[in-house]
């Protein structure tokens, strides 16, 4: 199966019914995308597939063939963070951090579509990404800061 992963052409022998999250974490060693519910309901595993955010825990590999996948590992680096990553740090938009990767990827997909989203659009985009620590307001502020 061929696809693009974080800008790199990638070719894998893989069961097409495995999930993208399983392959990312357990075959490719990319651990930023988290397993939360495993049911497509919490958003911890969110990545960008093509130009849309998807929950990778319920995305089968057969649907990834020929497409582009971006994970948190492809968003920015410690030395050159994506504006969203810098803003999350400045706004302290995380507590335990378990949901953060998914929040960042969902927000990155939003900003690709709409570089200047209204607050209501940010809240609507992120409503599928759950945070049990209660930092949602800080996340919204961070996304606003990233596109200011
Ligand atoms: Fe994928 Fe919860 S782990 S949505």
Automatic annotation (TrEMBL):
It comes from Ramlibacter lithotrophicus. Pfam families: Fer2, Fer2_2. The keyword Chloroplast does not apply. GO terms for molecular function: 2 iron, 2 sulfur cluster binding; metal ion binding; oxidoreductase activity. Residues 1-75 form the 2Fe-2S ferredoxin-type domain. The keyword Oxidoreductase applies. Keywords: 2Fe-2S, Iron, Iron-sulfur, Metal-binding, Oxidoreductase. It comes from the Bacteria. This is (2Fe-2S)-binding protein.
């Amino acid at each position: 199966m061929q696809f693009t992963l974080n800008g790199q052409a990638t070719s894998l022998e893989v069961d097409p019914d495995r999930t993208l999250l399983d392959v990312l974490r357990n075959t490719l060693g990319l651990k930023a995308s988290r397993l939360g519910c495993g049911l497509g309901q919490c958003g911890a595993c969110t990545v960008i597939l093509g130009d849309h955010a998807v929950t990778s825990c319920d995305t089968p590999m057969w649907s990834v063939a020929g497409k582009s996948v971006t994970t948190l590992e492809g968003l920015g680096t410690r030395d050159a963070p994506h504006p969203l990553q810098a803003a999350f740090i400045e706004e302290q938009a995380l507590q335990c951090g378990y949901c953060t990767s998914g929040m960042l990827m969902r927000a990155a997909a939003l900003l690709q579509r709409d570089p200047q989203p209204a607050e209501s659009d940010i809240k609507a985009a992120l409503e599928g990404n759950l945070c049990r620590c209660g930092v949602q307001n800080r996340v919204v502020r961070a996304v606003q800061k990233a596109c200011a």
